[in-house]
Amino acid sequence: MANQQPRLLVFSSLYPSSVRPMAGLFIRERMTRVAEHCPIVVVSPVPWFPLQGLIRLWRPGYRPQPPRFEMHNGVTVHFPRFLSLPGIGRSCDGFAMALCSAWTCFKLKKLFCFNLIDAHFAYPDGYAATRLGQWLRVPVVITLRGTEVPLSRSERRRDLMLKALASAARVVSVSQSLKNYVVGLGADGAKITVVGNGVDLDKFTAIDKVLARQRLGLPMQAPVLVSVGGLVERKGFHRVIDALPALVQRHADLVYLIVGGASPEGDIRRQLEQQVATLGLENHVRFLGAYPSEDLKTPLSAADVFVLATANEGWANVFLEAMACGLPVVTTDVGGNREVVSHADLGLIVPFGDQSALTSAIGQALATSWDRQRIMAYAADNAWDKRVSLLTQLFNTVVNP
């Protein structure tokens, strides 16, 4: 029998929509490129429960509801609702997600004839996908992206996550450290392939620093730090702000750019603004808000050093995006960070939670004469085309065992 072409149903609750345009951009970046090699359709379940409108009275951005389907770069994205009770019901999300997405997936099985489910995150999405795979009799590939670490702290969710990984035909991990972590929990390492994220060199390329600073109204000679990410505690913006008073003593005109906005994890902008005011850093910290990915090259090109004192990452795309614009990276030794910032020529890694080491590393990075061309060349060697080639080979193997 002739080999089948993979036809993918991409399954992820974290996918961009008109009401959450910045959610899951790294998934869309990858799958848009995969779609150049095989047909895909996306199902992105949306959490819902009957009284959530009341929560929006004091949290207006709580669980925004997109249309039932949208088109993204020529790909159809379906947004079925699934019952999800805030807080207390999260261990039921996997089954509820599968049950409430089943009708959409059954219809797509007839109309689109997919032969593989490509799920992102082991729980709840991966668990739901494996249930759907059993009902629809199609294999499932799950990509681990880093949330598996905090999720595993709940015994119930850890068990469901491991059940999903055991049921999957293959598993992709965005970093070796994440693979090692889930294997340590009991997952089968033989079925896990490491494929890191890539960088879009068309969007992320250095522009003239003078021009970039003019656009942002930045002093030409000032040392400039930049962080990019959702404004949530995990990303560690507050840790960088805590380092600034000591750095300002040495660099009186230092500027720290914070690029990002609310995310599905939350929004701590008010707390960060209060921290800046308490430390008297209003003249040194600028909140730029969220930027579309195609515009990020401006603040990245305006900066001297990229810093992210994050608590957990699978594979941080933003490091490669910063490097593509010539920036060295200062970050914490968590998750796959050391795999991305893999050489001393690319930046500095500090122990997580060591505030003194973070402050010292930022100061050292500002004082170092970095080989920006070397940094950009490393980013170019991690472009998306190489990653997508590995993924399409893996999908072919699953569909044609």
Structure write-up:
It is built from 16 helices and 16 strands. It is an alpha/beta fold and 401 residues long. The strands form 3 sheets. Strands 4-5-2-1-7-8-9-10 form an 8-stranded mixed beta sheet, with helices on both faces. A 6-stranded parallel beta sheet has the order 13-12-11-14-15-16, sandwiched between helices. A two-stranded parallel sheet has the order 3-6. The mean pLDDT is 93. A hairpin with a 2-residue loop joins strand 4 and strand 5 (75-78). It starts with 7 loop residues before the first strand and ends with a helix. It folds into 2 domains: 8-198 and 383-399, 3-Layer(aba) Sandwich (Rossmann fold), CATH 3.40.50.2000; 209-380, Rossmann fold, CATH 3.40.50.2000. Helix 3 packs across helix 4, helix 4 (122-136) crosses helix 6 and helix 9 packs across helix 14.
Secondary structure layout plus pairing:
Layout: E1 8-11, H1 25-34, E2 40-43, E3 46-48, H2 52-55, E4 69-72, E5 75-78, E6 81-83, H3 93-111, E7 116-120, H4 122-136, E8 140-144, H5 148-151, H6 155-167, E9 170-173, H7 176-185, E10 192-194, H8 209-216, E11 224-228, H9 237-250, E12 255-259, H10 269-278, E13 285-289, H11 297-302, E14 305-308, H12 317-324, E15 329-332, H13 337-340, E16 347-350, H14 355-367, H15 372-380, H16 384-399
Parallel strand pairs: 1-2, 1-7, 2-5, 3-6, 7-8, 8-9, 9-10, 11-12, 11-14, 12-13, 14-15, 15-16
Antiparallel strand pairs: 4-5
Helix pairs in contact: 3-4, 4-6, 9-14, 12-15
